[in-house]
Amino acid sequence: MPLASDRGFRAEVWAVAAAAARRDASSPRPALRRRTLLGGLLAVGLLPAAGALAAAPALPTAAPASSPHWMQGAPQPLAAHFQVRQVPSGPVQDWYFYRQADSVHLIKPQHEEVWRLSPQGQVSFERFFLADRRSVHYSPGELLTLGLRPHWPALQRFADLAAWASSPDSTAGQWRLTLGGGTSGGPAQEALWSEALQLPLRITRRSSHGASGPSGALEWRLISHHPAPLATWPLPNGAGRSLEQVDAADLGDLLDKDFAAKAERLDVMNGWRAAHEH
Fold this sequence. Notes:
Order of helices and strands: HEEEEEEHHEEEEEEH
Mean pLDDT: 75
Helix content: 10-25%
């Protein structure tokens, strides 16, 4: 599945700018760039309390007919630190990606996500809303109900880039990938892929809107990687916290309508469900 729609792009860019403005207004040193090292739920879109960027670059919905040879290596367990920013000089977020054979964790500012693979080959998903002391669990059946058929090998690679056009990079074992029509700044979406890591080293998404919305681009850049998380990196799954687990299928019946709306807004921004009022 390609990167999120341009509507989602515009919401992400505006959310980045709004988050930066809120931080600057509350800081005696607004020029300083802040990096969030601890997890917590990243509110998506234009929620007043939103944290900034919305979704990871892609959710694979089905296995490709065939993967390119540069994407056929077995992904090895690793811990990776990505930075996400509005280019050329927008605010920065720190994302942490932890890959194991049967789990993939993505820790963003104010929220965490985890995909799990069962011994039977079924995929489930969970979001951790640490500030709310709750998580929302999506069973394999609930994901199917939402029309999602996650492709595990692509989930392990951070983004689903198998269908992108590719050309060899000047560095051995790296590939330049592109998707979509060009803009004044280059292809609508482009990436640099590492065969050895089975991860993108960089993903850039450019806006195709000018007067009708914010211009510019969002960039995901791999900063560092290690066999296991560093001691200073956040622990996954809200480690050490006691969280109430909510079944995603029960969000519509939840008495706490504000929390249900927050959780479902993330789904809407990811294109998983249509927006509706509680």
